[in-house]
Amino acid sequence: MSLRYLISKRNALRFLRLATGSFLFDWKEVAAMFGIKHDVYENPLHRPLEKPVTAIILGAGNRGNVYGGYSILHPDELQIVGVAEPNALRNERFSSMHNIEESKRFTSWEKVFEVDKFADAVIISTPDNLHTEPCLRALELGYDILLEKPIAPTEEECRAILAKAHETNNIVGVCHVLRYAPYFRQIKELLNANAIGKVISVQHMEPIEHIHMSHSYVRGNWHNSKKTAPIILAKSCHDTDIIRWLIDQQTEQIQCFGNLSWFNSKNAPEGSTHRCTDGCKIEHECPYSALQIYHRDKKRLYVFDLPEDKDEWEDAILQQLKTTDYGRCVYRMDNDQPDHLTINMRFKQNITAAFSMEAFTSYEGRRTRIMGSMGDLVGDMETFAMTNFQTGKKTMWSLKTDSHGGGDHRLMKDWVQAVGHQDPSMLSSGLDVSVESHLMAFAAERSRLNNTIEPVTLMKKELAMV
Q: Residue limits of the Gfo/Idh/MocA-like oxidoreductase N-terminal domain (predicted)?
């Protein structure tokens, strides 16, 4: 960390002297007092590129379009020159959007690697169970990589990717986008500056929101952990990562409790049917009604690949609800993901952390409490308040962003810079530092299933990497 991020004793004393009365500080002034760069939205290491980075997208779904969209806004930095997507409609739309020539449009990731290398990098946004093979093959062929989280669905595959990346010496960025959100970056700078003293404990919650839970983890692609990945990995490795990053100490032990309490057949209401479109008697009263969510409210429609003509949407949505899992009753799915869980963590220096993942909330957006020896910090992804124990006064910070805290395209910018300049230090979420968050998730799942306290063990060569 650069010295300009560190608190000086003089500025600390000045801050304590000024923190009197009921005045809430102007953030820029406080940042200056602590020697913190106020503008956390740009990486000071960035410099102009000689030419745009070229990349191939593997998987043109929601996340592939988010990452690929960076090239539309910044064509001088990134150009998408190839795509692999088995869905013909998505392939065509993505290819047209990025003007990808016909010979560089592929129906599977395997076909990309059957031709000579034709780009600087590969962006892997395939389903979770299709991360390992394309990542290993891309590394063998010399591509730099941006890898959607999770790295891989098993511990062995994560370690295999890490070993291959070090063997080939290619850049691999992991899409832990929360590290790039201004909210968490600002908190991280304050912790690095000892603004609340020594970190003693952290409480962190991820409120998934009840409809998001039903959409993604009851009806959606991640409803079955055996076919994809456990929810603690698929959803909350963001959170194990951000906790580990903020605390900045190695994890030693983990204990997890959680289960599937509500979304099962035992709780199916009388009069409900296998599909919401089958004449369910309680459909209008159900907060998880597929007809309400998708047909009447028109929410989360990106999963349906709807026609360009919106006049055709009504019939198309109804057809999807009659034929896909998105129209099935949430109490009659083959889902097995926990709908609530808690994790207790112990880090080096006996720092503790508690994490809670909750489906049954009316809101989204992580909630964070950090307790330090000289102050504490409380935030909700848009706002945080830092309180000084000596004076009892607060410093406020606020910024409204998207669901990932504005981190998606900031991640892209850092990754493009890392690839363009062949400098992995540009990335906060390189593969080396991201592996431990996955090992934490795997340990948590073992603990949850076996009712054990689990160690988080990195091999010696991995400890040297982290």
A: 56-175
